[in-house]
Amino acid sequence: DWSGESPASGAILLQRFSALTGSGATRALADAATPSRTWTLRNASAATAGLTAGRWGNALSLNRNTPGTEQTSLTVPHFPGLWPSSGRMLFKAWAALSFAQAFTPIISTRNTSGKAPLVYLSTQSDGRPRAQVYNAAGTLLLDQSEPIASIGWKPTALDWVCYLWLVDMDARTSQIALVRRDTGQVFVGPIRALSGAPNAACEAAFEVGTLSPTAAYWAGGYIDEVGYWQPAGAVDLAEVAAGVARSLPARGADATGGVGLLVSDSG
Questions:
Q1: Structural contact between residues 29 and 41, judged by C-beta atoms closer than 8 angstroms
Q2: I want to staple 41 with a disulfide (CB 3.0 to 4.6 A). Which of 5, 27, 45, 151 is the partner?
Q3: For 203, what's the count of Cα atoms within 13 Å in the CB-facing half-sphere?
Q4: Alpha carbon 194 to chain centroid distance?
Q5: Which residues contact residue 258 at a Cβ distance below 8 angstroms, ignoring those fewer than 6 apart?
Q6: What is the pTM of this model?
Q7: What is the sign, positive or negative, of the torsion defined by CA atoms of 84, 85, 88, 90?
Q8: What is the CB-side half-sphere exposure of residue 81 using CA atoms within 13 A?
């Protein structure tokens, strides 16, 4: 729980930014759920790109100066089982965003040429989280931004926030939750109905931090602990968010709390 990972098992993808391999503009990161699976960091040689000491070990720094010029992002190519034909999808990312562009992409399936998307999670420039779900024709079934007034607090620039998103393909619903790292505040949004059946045959790649070439948007700031699960049973998103919030006092990776203590996964 010190890392804020919840649930602890059953991830399809889990990126903890432990280490980069290779050199040059394109670098590789092993997946923590399936180590043989590779994430690709594009434009890794950009001015602000790279791993940096974060709240939970390393975090990814990207596009902190000029997102449209640096264009750093992550991708995992499509593989069998990446996207389900039924059931639930749970997404999670810790991010401290700069909100430098009109929209900040977090997780996207809209970037693969010739392949209809399924999901897209982003924020607007004022910090509002935005959930979009698509059908097999690429038509929107949901385009919902949760209003700041209902959240009760506003994510600000470089404010660490955990973004949680649950999409139920059978019930045809979407729900967002947020956890604010420094204060422990939790927002659990209402369950939103989709207007039709989601794209059950999606073959798009899993993208983080970019909406390109569809549109010229890139995330700026820091991203950590990106996870994607396909839960077998029902999910109480409020309880998942509460579990993330309960992990916040375990701050051994912070500089202020770890001066005399070597913190590692095995230790």
A1: yes
A2: 27
A3: 5
A4: 21
A5: 252
A6: 0.92
A7: positive
A8: 8
Q: What residue has token string 């992409």? A: 105
HEC string of the chain equals CCCCCCCCCCEEEEECCCCCECCCCCEEEECCCCCCCEEEEECCCCCCCEEEEECCEEEEEECCCCHHHHCCEEEECCCCCCCCCCCEEEEEEEEEECCCCCEEEEEECCCCCCCCCCEEEEEECCCCEEEEEECCCCCEEEEEECCHHHHCCCCCCCCCEEEEEEEECCCCEEEEEEEECCCCCEEECCCEECCCCCCCCCCCCEEECEECCCCCEECCEEEEEEEEECCCCCCCHHHHHHHHHHCCCCCCCCCCCCCCCCCCCCC
Respond yes or no on whether the N-terminal peptide bond of residue 213 is cis (omega within 30° of 0).
Answer: yes
Reading the block at residue 190, the tokens are 């209402």
At 108, which amino acid appears? S
Residue showing tokens 């097999």: 136
- Encoding tokens for residue 165? 């998103």
Q: Which two tokens stand for residue 114?
A: 């010739």
Q: Give the separation between CA 61 and CA 241, rounded to whole angstroms.
A: 24
Note the pLDDT tens digit of each residue in 192-240.
Answer: 999 999 999 999 999 999 999 999 999 999 999 999 999 988 999 999 9
> Average pLDDT, whole number, for the chain?
91
